[in-house]
């Protein structure tokens, strides 16, 4: 009955089990060293045989392999066998000696137990971790590929959108931007035409302010009203009330891209376009009020009246006029200070109209500021206010549009062209970098996939050999206990 009771041995304690039951001595490592030396010597002289080649390929040779080698040598060295059953072949003698040393003190069990424990605890888990790492690398690479492709696509789209906003193709950025400068007069002219639609809104604001303050001499939005009546004249004409006899246009040059041209420059100094200035831009941000502009000798006071001490020269033929230089040669919308004043007045008008609109919506009764208290003809309905607000927004969007902003800054500082071109090219460089990163990630993923394929057969082969080794150990131990079943439990069972 006791012979049928199985023997269960924990795989992690297998070697200790053998030593504690005195199947193996504690000095077995020293004996194994001598055996390994003999194996290394004997393996140098082996016959050509498929079985031996298979045993010796990628395998750490243990006792059970040596037994199989002897069985194969019995076939290959059969002609050296004597009538007494002994072999004259030195190969056979060497391997028989190795097996004898293994079986002495059951050193073979100690080594086999150590190999089994190492495979279960380290070798197989290590290979599986390598396999999992390859899978993780591939997943990360796939995600990174998508991110790189998205960033590259976004950068390309941003570049195209910016080029579209500026109205250029983007093939030769500096040259195309320089050519856009010729559109500025027409853009300003379009804005001036739109300002004419604000007459009713400015008159309403004027009437409201006069009624509220009680001063009939007050003037609101002087620049907006002036542009609505006179268009976009020069700063000289706005200040002195007379057009200049002569306009000295500033010199304006934009250098072309060195990569695509032979160093020629775009010179607008001799054209008929009425603008120009020498400005240095110290920051790449679009800031309408932080750019150093041309010197203005008449910026202290804006005088709408024409007096005798304005500097106007009376020519002999009786035509009044003078010479417009520097900032006075620019138009009202082209000169940064008057343009900023114009924008401020537009925002002031919009704020007033929106406030009035909210008052109309919030109460059905007339507010204390209602004009109907004095003049019912000045009453403005909600629908009329909506139209006025829409017209003001239209003018503001035109004067503050991306294209006009960039062109205005370029007009004021040709150096801004380099910064704008660099900003656009940065999107292209980023897209190119992302494409290179994507290509590198693809190569990394492919390399990881190849490494993963290499791990699969290694793991499979090691598991098979470990299970085979486990079966050999169980069989050998079973013989020592009169055939009782032996089970090695623990990590091996989970492989």
Q: Overview of this structure, please?
A:
The protein has a domain of 234 residues. 58% of the residues lie in helices and 4% in strands. It has a two-stranded parallel sheet. It comes from Evadne anonyx. Keywords: Coiled coil. This is EOG090X07S9.
Relevant terms:
EOG090X07S9, 15 helices, two-stranded parallel ribbon, two-stranded parallel sheet, mainly alpha, single chain, rod-shaped, 495 residues, coiled coil, CDK5RAP3
Quantity of strands, as a count = 8
| Low-confidence residue ranges | 258-320, 370-377
Largest sheet: 2 strands, parallel
Question: What percent strand?
Answer: under 5%
The termini sit apart by 32 Å
Strand order within the widest sheet?
1-8
Percent range of helical residues: 55-70%
The rounded Rg comes to: 48 Å
Estimated structural class:
mainly alpha
Average pLDDT level: 80
What is the compact description of this entry?
This protein has 495 residues and is mainly alpha-helical.
Q: What is the fold's blueprint, element by element?
A:
Blueprint: E1 7-10, H1 14-20, H2 28-42, H3 50-56, H4 63-76, H5 90-103, H6 107-166, H7 173-180, H8 184-195, H9 199-213, H10 222-230, H11 235-240, E2 246-247, E3 253-255, E4 265-267, E5 313-314, E6 320-321, E7 323-324, H12 336-362, H13 382-399, H14 402-412, H15 415-480, E8 486-489
Helix pairs in contact: 1-6, 2-5, 4-5, 6-15, 7-15, 8-10, 8-13, 12-13, 14-15
């Amino acid at each position: 009955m006791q012979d049928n009771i199985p023997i269960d041995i924990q795989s992690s304690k297998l070697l200790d089990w053998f030593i504690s039951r005195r199947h193996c001595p504690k000095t077995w490592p020293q004996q194994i060293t001598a055996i390994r030396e003999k194996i290394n010597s004997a393996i140098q002289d082996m016959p050509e045989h498929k079985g031996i080649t298979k045993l010796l390929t990628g395998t750490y040779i243990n006792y059970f392999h040596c037994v199989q080698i002897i069985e194969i040598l019995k076939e290959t060295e059969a002609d050296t066998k004597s009538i007494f059953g002994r072999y004259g072949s030195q190969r056979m003698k060497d391997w028989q000696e190795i097996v004898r040393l293994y079986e002495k003190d059951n050193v073979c069990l100690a080594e086999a137990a150590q190999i089994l424990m190492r495979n279960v605890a380290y070798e197989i888990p290590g290979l599986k971790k390598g396999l999992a790492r390859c899978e993780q690398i591939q997943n990360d690479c796939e995600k990174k590929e998508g991110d790189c492709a998205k960033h590259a696509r976004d950068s390309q789209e941003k570049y195209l959108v910016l080029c579209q906003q500026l109205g250029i193709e983007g093939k030769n950025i500096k040259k195309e931007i320089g050519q856009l400068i010729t559109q500025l007069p027409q853009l300003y002219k379009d804005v001036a035409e739109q300002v004419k639609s604000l007459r009713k809104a400015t008159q309403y604001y004027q009437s409201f302010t006069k009624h509220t303050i009680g001063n009939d001499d007050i003037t609101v939005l002087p620049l907006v009203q002036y542009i609505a009546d006179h268009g976009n004249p020069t700063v000289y004409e706005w200040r002195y009330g007379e057009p200049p006899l002569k306009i000295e246009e500033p010199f304006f040059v934009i250098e072309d891209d060195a990569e695509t041209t032979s160093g020629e420059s775009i010179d607008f100094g001799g054209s008929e376009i009425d603008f120009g200035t020498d400005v240095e831009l110290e920051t790449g941000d679009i800031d309408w009020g932080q750019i150093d502009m041309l010197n203005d000798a008449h910026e202290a006071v804006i005088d709408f009246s024409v007096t005798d001490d304005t500097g106007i020269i009376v020519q002999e033929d009786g035509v009044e006029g003078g010479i417009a230089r520097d900032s006075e040669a620019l138009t009202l919308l082209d000169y940064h200070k008057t343009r900023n004043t114009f924008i401020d007045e537009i925002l002031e008008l919009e704020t007033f109209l929106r406030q009035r609109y909210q008052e109309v919506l919030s109460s059905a009764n007339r507010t204390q500021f209602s004009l109907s208290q004095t003049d019912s003809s000045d009453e403005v309905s909600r629908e009329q206010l909506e139209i006025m607000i829409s017209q003001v927004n239209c003018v503001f969007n035109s004067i503050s549009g991306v294209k006009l902003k960039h062109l205005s800054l370029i007009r004021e500082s040709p150096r801004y062209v380099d910064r704008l071109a660099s900003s656009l090219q940065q999107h292209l460089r980023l897209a190119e970098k992302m494409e290179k990163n994507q290509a590198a990630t693809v190569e990394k993923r492919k390399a990881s996939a190849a490494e993963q394929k290499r791990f699969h057969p290694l793991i499979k082969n090691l598991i098979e050999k470990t299970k085979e080794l486990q079966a050999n150990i169980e069989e050998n131990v079973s013989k020592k206990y009169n055939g009782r079943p032996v089970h090695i439990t623990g990590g091996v069972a989970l492989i």
